Amino acid sequence: MEDPRRVLVTGAASGIGLAIARGFARQGHAVLLADRDARVHEVARELGAKAHVVDLADSAATVALARAAEAALGGCDILVNNAGVSPKRNGLPPTPLEVPVEEWDLVLRINLTAPFLLCRELLPGMLKQRFGRIVNIASRAGRTFVGPAATHYAASKAGVIGMTRHLAGLYAAQGVTVNAIAPGRIETPLSSTSSAAVLDAAVAAIPAHRLGTADEIADAALFLASPGAGYVTGVCLDVNGGVFMG
Ligand SMILES: NC(=O)c1ccc[n+]([C@@H]2O[C@H](COP(=O)([O-])OP(=O)(O)OC[C@H]3O[C@@H](n4cnc5c(N)ncnc54)[C@H](O)[C@@H]3O)[C@@H](O)[C@H]2O)c1
Asked: Which of 23, 109, 168, 200 is the Cys-Cys partner for 233 at CB 3.0 to 4.6 Å?
């Protein structure tokens, strides 16, 4: 059993975030699940973990989440920035020509600004103790052109990857690693907002001929957060069944 760590996972009420939180809880770590969905309380109870309801579109509430995590867990060793949104119109991504600036801002606030704020707020504690692990959930759409993703979503996820590299370089000498995961198509409530035609086309193009599972992303996150990954920093790990090989 590894040393128990104190872990904050955002977007942990469902999908990939829930699988990641479950994985850490099973390993015996203390976990705080954050989500805007109040069902996060019930989920956390089942895992023997703690919960915090927050709207990550709200910067002040996001900063308050960092303080709440430190208070609830007694500090934070591992931060997983997982929460994300991908607005659709009838199962299809909006074209760039139909995205109002309010929607652009909202996607960037949730997918990129909130992860930045949580890094900004929790890094000082990690640097002080000379240990920290940050795992940012990006997307294949931040790595290459993905037709069924929207422009704001792709831009936000490319931003997450750039932020990951920059923070990794700054803090590598101080015991803090910062990495990203770029999932391909994963079976979750978010991916099921795509139309059946979009999903069928996606599966046909994946060399593995199937969607990925949330547990497969959780396994990657657990590895990047583990003591054995101490020399891995600044990477963006593609977990996509072979559909994009960076
Ligand atoms: N599912 C996929 O195919 C896929 C592919 C690539 C990347 N991703 C990324 O993985 C991450 C998780 O996606 P998922 O598929 O599990 O989605 P999901 O919709 O199942 O879960 C996302 C969770 O984030 C929460 N959330 C959304 N907006 C929030 C906000 N403003 N404040 C607090 N919580 C908020 C939701 O309530 C939900 O519980 C996202 O960042 C997504 O972009 C998913």
From this structure: 168
